[in-house]
Structures are given as structure tokens and as C-alpha cells.
Amino acid sequence: MQNQPRKIELLAPAKNLECGLAAVNHGADAVYIGAPMFSARAAAGNSLQDIAELINYAHRYRTKVLVALNTVLTDEQLPEAERLIHQIYEIGADALIVQDMGILRLDIPPIELHASTQTDNRTVEKVKFLEDMGISRVVLARELTLQQIKEIHENTHIELEVFVHGALCVSYSGQCYISQAMTGRSANRGECAQFCRLPYQLLDSNGEVLVKNKHLLSLKDLDLSEHLAELIDAGVSSFKIEGRLKDADYVKNITAYYRQKLDAILENRTDVNPASLGKTRFFFEPNPEKSFRRSSTDYFLFGRKAAQSAPDTPKSLGEEIGRVKYIGKNFIEVITNKEINNGDGLCFLGKEDKLNGFHVNRVEGKKIYPGIMPEITVNSVLYRNQDHEFEKILKGNISERKIKVDMVFSETVDGFSLEITDEENISAKMEFPAEKTPANNPERVNQTIENQLSKLGNTIYELGKLDIKTSSTWFIPASQLNEWRRVTIETLDEIRAKAYKTRMRKPMQENVEFPLKKLSYLGNVTNQKAKEFYEFLGVEEVLPGFEVKAEEGVPLMFCKYCIKHALGWCPKEGYKVSFKEPLFLQHNEQKFRLEFDCKKCEMRVVFEN
User: Fold this and answer.
1) pTM (2 d.p.)
2) Helix (H) or strand (E) holding 207
3) Is CATH 3.30.1330.40 the classification given to domain 6-168+220-282+284-290?
4) 582: closest CA among 559, 608, 600, 558?
5) Alpha carbon distance 271, 268 (integer Å)
6) Is the CB of residue 376 less than 8 Å from the CB of residue 395?
7) List of residues 6+ apart from 483 with CB closer than 8 A
8) Which CATH architecture does the domain made up of 317-394 adopt?
9) pLDDT digit string, tens, across residues 321-371
């Protein structure tokens, strides 16, 4: 038996209903959106009514809606979470993205479960365990190499989802406690204070400043758009765009960009298919450099590289447009091959590499007249982080997503029938009694039928093939054809809605043991149900999570990214240390010790009291 083509999914973020609809309209095969409570973005919760509206719209294209309920929970929150999961299931969500294993001990409906990246999915052993727990999909750690992803795929039978675009956390996801320790705001509860984006001094143990006032933990943004085919070959099924706090314009541009990239790959392969229906056409040229962007990196996909961080600024630089050639009294002359427009936002790194910016008031050739003249020097590199004309384009009608349907128009004993069949081979057939009157212009009859039946502009469909089966050329008023088309399309919509089925959760395997006998605070156990879950699976000692009991002197960040390597100080690469260790990061009065595990190629960040 020949294997069915694997479904390849483009998964886009939705801050709210507007963003979710934009994602669907710009080609997403799936959308992930925050639950009303307990999603890992405190600022991106959504009402059940809005999620239900998104589900109803998305399912017409067979686009899935995944609901994020991926925070760790307290004992007091568990009953509310249980009720909420039932409600999410009842409105038709396709899956629930979770972190807290206590959820698996609740009385929940058979909704499909996905393991959030915050469950720290880095090894075959961990992913296999989650598969045995009935999890259908894991979101892999961003730090994995292509080879590691392939190894996980070859040794498990679970769907693999990877981030391909957007912001990077410097710590392994789910293993960052610095925000909780310093502010009481837990990243595992969706309230990250973003300590990784702050400026730091790097000190040696003598207090000597080695690096002054740089964003030493701030990473560039991920962009794997040139490696999608390789990821498909490695076994990835879902390609995730980060950004549940991003606006609709970001979602439109980035989703469209990746839709085009994936379509170009899928069109030339028979082993993989898109995971949803409909062809999306775009009336603009997507460009990720014109959306929020801290430069870009492929991170660890092909191993450790230099230039993974963005130490000068955690803000969006945008696209490089050129250099300053001359500075006049009220203008800046630039060397550029880009078109600059009134209203554009430009920026540059000024004194001490601080990011500065200004708005363009007027442009004459290569001369830019700012609204307020900035302190800038000749040869400064200029970036555009706000493209006024591109933003205007994104506000317009820039995409069209249509499902192809075939029609058969036939003659019956007492009239005519119209059958419409979609890409899934779902059909609606309606019969219409009508008098049959010979046409005065028989040569125009078939063209009239095609003209009227193909008018699908206000629907989600477009005409593929039309087969006209009549014994003679009958006169049929255009208004009648339009009405028959409308009624049959409405019937098809109803049949398609009833035909949609969500996948059910897989059963837990029996006699499975968790790989560890002792679970530290890194297990993120914050409620009794989660504790029972691990004890049931053979864990003998389950320590409370950091949010429940904050241990002193323990690492608050676990990073594959290494500051020493980023600065060219890696001892494995032959660097001879000229400073006294340990090294420290300092922000205002807060001081953190850096621990380097060169055997594992990892860095840990520990708070110094």
C-alpha cells in the first residue's frame, strides 16, 4: 500500500480574532490563539465567542485552530482550567497546546493535546515519553540542529512542530526563571519581564568591566525561510511563526511570505501536501524585512555559529537602506538604491551604539529632510524600521483565498440540476423544476450558463471545471441561474460544515515510566495533580516548581547560546583566557554569575545575592 502524502502545515499566530482571520486569509493551514485564561501570553487572551468565530471561519478552509492553554497552574486554578477545556472542546477547537502535565489528570474531553515548547522538548527520550502520554504533537526546542530533529523523527511516531520565524528566547523554553525570581512575574505563567532584552555590563571576578552596556542576552530573530525543504525532509510537519503579541499587519506579511515559500516547495513534490484547502493569491510582495525584525539568524539549525545575538539593541532595526554621504543644515544625503518616502521611519546606531530614529518629512532625490534633525555622522548606516507605503499596502485588499469547485449542470425530467463538488470530493446536488423553453440564441446558451454559475466572487470558492449536460439548448434567465448557484453553494456550505471532524486525543500507553526518578524545580510542578502525574509514572521525589518554592543559588536560565562564544572567547576554539573568572552580568544593582559547562556547550545564569 502506497503511503499517503504527509500534510505540511503553516501555523500562524493570532493575538486576537482580527489577527486570526488575517492569518487564514493569507494562507495559514492552522492558527494558534490564546485561551481566555492560562495562555502563555498574559496580554493575548481571547473570549470564547471570538475563538468560536475564528473556528467557524477557519474550518471552511480546513484550517485548524489550536488554543494555547500553556501556563503552569495552581491547585486553585485547576477547576477553572478544567471547565475552560470543556468549553474549548465544545466550540470545536482542533487541539489544546499545554505545558502543565496536571491537565492529563483532570476530567477533560477527548480534545487532541499538543506539548508546548515550554515542556522542554530536546531529546528523543522526552519526545517519546510525551508520545506515550497520548500527546499528538510536540513543539520542539528552538535550539535543536537539523540532525537532532531528524533523529527525533526517526525514533518516534509523533507530529513535529518547529518555530521557523520570530523572536528567540535565550534560555531553553520553560527553563527560564529569572523573571519570576527578580519580579515575581513568571514566564511559565505568561508574564515574562524580558530580562534577556536588558542592557548589561560584563564583569570579571575582579570587577573589571569587559563589555559595557550591551544587550548581551538579546538574540536576533529566527528566520528559517531558506531551509523549509530541509526541515520537511527531516520530518517536520508544522512550521510555526512566533508572534502572539504581533499585530495583524505582521501576521499578513509573514504568513504570506511563508505561504509562498512553502507553495513553491510543495508544488514540485508528491510526498507532501498542504494541510488545508484553497489557493491563496497575493496582490503585494511579502517582505519580512519590512516587519518587526532584530536582524535574523538560523540559530543552531546547522550547529553553533557566531553572530546569533543582537547586542546593540533589542528593538527592530528593519531593512538596511544605505549610508550617510553628507549632512546639511536640515537634510541628510544618503547613498542608497532604495526608494524612501515621506512618513518613513529611519533609525541608526549613534553614540555608544544607542539606537536613534527619526521620521522622514520630505525627500528630494537622495536628500532626506527629517522632521527633527538627528545627531548623526557621515558613514552612519541607516535602517528603515517603518515603511509608510508598505504599511498602507497592508491595510488594503492584498490576498484572496479560494477553494476550487467543479460543477455539473444537468437536465432532469422536469427541469435542471446543479451539482457542486469541492477539493475534498464533498458534493451538494440540487434539483430545480423549471419550464423548458427553446433558446432564441442557442449559440450563446452554454456561455450564459458558464458566466452565471462562475460568479462566485462573494464566496470562498472559484470554478474549476464545468460540465453542461443538456439534451438541447434551453433558454434559462440569468437571474434563475444565479439563484440556483446561490442555493446550491449554501447547501454545500452546510454539508461541508457538518463533514468537518476534529481529531480525538490518543490514549495513554500503559506501563510507561518517566525517565527520571527525581524531578527538580525544572519539572515545573506547581499543583497536586501534576505531582500525582509524575508519581504515577514512577518518579520517587517530585520537588515543587520555582513558582511555588523559589530556591536560592540555583540557575535561573539555561542557555545553549554562550556569551563567551559570541565574543570570540571560546576556550574550545583556542582562546586563552586573560581575565579572572567567574564572569558576571550586571544591570543596575542586579548581578548574575555566569556558569559555563563547556562539555555540554551550555551557559547558566545564577543570581548573586
Assistant:
1) 0.96
2) none
3) no
4) 608
5) 10
6) no
7) none
8) Beta Barrel (2.40)
9) 999 999 999 999 999 999 999 999 999 999 888 899 999 999 999 999 999
